[in-house]
Design brief:
Helices cover about 0% and strands about 20% of the residues. It is mostly beta strands.
Length: about 90
């Protein structure tokens, strides 16, 4: 399990979106085969457009259940987007 945080400058991300390195803001690091994954980011750049968090598995096409928990000192608005972007 791992994840990528993307800055897509307000454009929707769906299964037809081809991610580029310029869009990637943060990554969780190497994929790990564990039940829990915790990553701490000290600070996000202020951004008038939303960030998109894309959870993923190591093997393309593999699916699994997951839970995302976010702790923040500032307000965070979450919105679920259904779709599978193309890998980088």
């Amino acid at each position: 399990m791992g994840f990528t945080i993307v800055k897509n400058y307000g454009k929707p991300i769906d299964e037809d979106t081809k991610l580029t390195q310029n869009m990637v803001y943060q990554r969780s690091g190497q994929y790990i085969e564990q039940r829990d994954l915790m990553v701490e980011f000290k600070e996000f750049e202020p951004n008038m457009h939303p960030y998109t968090l894309i959870p993923s598995t190591y093997d393309m096409g593999e699916t699994t259940n997951f839970t995302i928990t976010i702790f923040s000192q500032k307000e965070v608005k979450l919105e679920m987007i259904v779709g599978t972007p193309s890998p980088i």
